[in-house]
Amino acid sequence: MPELLQFLLSGITVGAVYALVALGFTIIYNASDVVNFAQGEFVMLGGMITVFSHAAGLPLPLAALIAIAATAAVGVALNKLAIEPARGAPVVSLIIITIGASIFIRGATQLVFDKQIHRFPAFSGDRPIAVGGATILPQSLWVIAGALAVFFGLWLFFTRTLTGRAVLATANNRIAAQLVGINTNYVMTLSFAMSAAIGALAGVLVTPITMTSYDVGLALALKGFAAAMLGGMGNPKGALAGGLLLGLLEAMTAGYVSSQYKDAAAFVVILAVLFAMPQGLFGRKSTDRV
Amino acid sequence: MSLLQIEGLGIDFGGLRAVNDVSFSLKPGEIVSVIGPNGAGKTTLFNMISGVYAPARGRVLLDGEDVTRMPPHLLARRGLSRTFQNLQIFQSMTVLENAVAGHHLHERGPVLADLFALPASRRRSRESEAGARALLERVGLGRAASQEAGSLSYGALKRLEIARALALKPRVLLLDEPAAGCNAVETEEIDHLIAAVAAEGVSILLVEHDMKMVMRISNHIVVLDHGEKIAEGEPAAISRDPRVIEAYLGAQATEATHADG
Questions:
Q1: Rounded to an integer, what distance in angstroms lies between the CA atom of residue A155 and that of residue A142?
Q2: Where are the alpha helices (DSSP H) in B30-183?
Q3: Which residues pair with B57 in a beta bridge?
Q4: InterPro entries recorded for this chain (chain A) (predicted)?
Q5: From residue B62, how far is each of B3, B59, B80, B158, B231 by CA, in Å?
Q6: How far is Cα A280 from Cα B8, in angstroms, rounded to an integer?
Q7: How far away is chain A from the Cα of B33, in angstroms, using its nearest Cα?
Q8: Hey, where are the domains in chain A?
Q9: Do B92 and A163 touch (CB under 8 A)?
């Protein structure tokens, strides 16, 4: 029994990271229908910039803030330099642009920083907390709290604020949004900034556990994307549930079967779900008017 | 004093002069129709005025201010709103949400108040919703408020688009074929609606193929052919103008004259 609890706890920790990445996907997808495959690089940048700011002598919280702000700026630059000039191109082209951007960011990070593996100290020490026979790292609690905070923040943003609803309106119909006075360019820029900041936050929270290097982004992007698809792309609730579910699936497979099969098992389950529910668990049916 | 003034507007697509040197103006409360055969440049003209296309030549003045090449969202904030011939609706929102979206500009408040759903914020939402419901009643969609917009008929969507445009409380309203796809009864309703809106002082610029409607409600008609203005004037004069009859009315001439008389 403590075994099961241990797998649950580690599954939820990993799942919270996937959920954060998936939430990042959700925002940009909502604003533009684009699946931003550079999302994983935002996570990587969050970790790497914190590592190097901290090494340069800045206190950890400040280093983390700088990393999040700098990554948000990278997100804005990605939109302004790569996505906005290509506006009007089909969504598939825009998605390919984000793949190109992710390769570019990875390469640039390698040059600016290095190819080593890094970590920085956990926020509240490394002493595991005992929970009913299992243990959990204090940093895991930070990760889980971060994912929940971001989820509720986004939920409030999209349902309560005018700006949040402007983002949804832009996603629904860009021209109609402009007609009612919404500055759709601003909405896009804001979405990329928010999405990048959330990715960076995930990187900051998880680096003390998983460590980071210039190439951790791709795997995270894939897992986050899978989580978002599982939950239903575009739905924050789906992103959270999909992320946690994916994390749990991996932890259970690694624990009870073999850690070599954990990715395979997770993807098999996702495929099965998508066969039965192509819109994902929380996705809404889409209909096209012809 | 004209509210909307168009001066020598023109645009080229490749080597084609899609619209060239078109000028006219609208006074407050006036209904001006732009007519012309298919491909005459009516929608292109609309797209230039509403900031969708950037004109190559000429100016657009809104209440004396030069708004040429201004993006649509800024024009909306200055009181110019429009509908599209091929509909631009938030398909997956409800009818009510579509109309509420039109209130976007008039609903600004502090973000924190919205986040915590403070009374002021809730009151603003309620006012928007009440305003939106009143507009839906006005266009005859009151009972469809909670339906998903995508499930409405084409004619109903046309009216929803008008309601959303009206929610912006515009000073100038551009309507691109509001009666297309509507039956005779709906056309007459739209007819009354346009007249009532104009009576409140809103200037209306109309593109419409229903000649009876155009002749009935327009104060002034501008005729385009091959992107150029070939005539303008009162409906009675336009329907007798030999150039117009030759370029456009053709076989419909008798019908239009009949409607006019």
A1: 20
A2: 42-49, 72-77, 95-101, 111-115, 119-138, 154-167
A3: B10
A4: ABC_transp_permease (IPR001851), BCAA_transport_permease (IPR052157)
A5: 6, 10, 8, 25, 23
A6: 54
A7: 21
A8: 2-276
A9: no
Task: Give me the phi and psi of B19, to 5 degrees please.
Answer: -140, 135
- On chain A, the residues whose CB falls within 8 A of the CB of B93 are 169, 172
Q: Answer whether residue B249 shows pLDDT above 60.
A: no
> What does the alpha-carbon distance between residue B55 and residue A280 come to, in Å, rounded to a whole number?
45
CB–CB contact B114 A178 (8 Å): no
* Total residues found in chain B within this entry: 261
Number of CB atoms found within 10 A of residue A262's CB? 18
Q: How confident is the model at residue B111 (pLDDT cuts 50, 70, 90)?
A: low
Q: What is the pLDDT of residues B51-86, one digit of tens each?
A: 988 999 999 999 989 999 899 999 998 999 988 888
Q: Which CATH architecture has domain B1-79+170-261?
A: 3-Layer(aba) Sandwich (3.40)
What is the Cα–Cα distance from A163 to A183, expressed in whole angstroms?
Answer: 10
Q: Is the pLDDT of residue B254 over 60?
A: no
What pLDDT digit, counting tens, does each position of A176-221 carry?
898 888 999 999 999 999 999 999 999 999 999 999 999 999 889 9
Task: For residue B72, list chain A residues with Cβ-Cβ distance below 8 A.
Answer: 175, 178-179
Q: Is the pTM of this model over 0.90?
A: no
Which one-letter DSSP state was computed for residue B81?
E
Considering only CB atoms, which chain B residues are within 8 Å of A183?
71, 73-74
For a pLDDT cut of 90, what percent of chain A falls above it? 60
A180/B105 touch (CB, cutoff 8 Å), yes or no: yes
Nearest by CB to A287, from B105, B115, B150: name it. Answer: B150
What DSSP assignment string belongs to B155-201?
HHHHHHHHHHHHHT--SEEEEESTTTT--HHHHHHHHHHHHHHHHTT
Question: For chain B, where do the domains classified as CATH 3.40.50.300 start and end?
Answer: 1-79+170-261
Closest CA to A68 of A214, A207, A190, A201: A201
Determine the residue of chain A that is closest to B164 in CA distance. A180
Q: What six digits make up the tokens of A191?
A: 């979405």
- Per the DSSP assignment, residues forming a β-bridge with B220 are B32
pLDDT digits (tens, 9 = 90+) for A169-184: 888 888 889 888 899 9
Strand B228-233 versus strand B220-225 pairing type:
antiparallel
How would you label B85-112 residue by residue, b for 16+ Cβ within 10 Å and e otherwise?
Answer: bebbbbbbbbbbbbbbbbbbbebeeeee
Cβ distance of B91 and A289 shorter than 8 Å: yes
User: What architecture does CATH give domain A2-276?
Assistant: Orthogonal Bundle (1.10)
Q: What number is the ipTM of this complex?
A: 0.80
* Cβ pair A34, A28 in contact under 8 A: yes
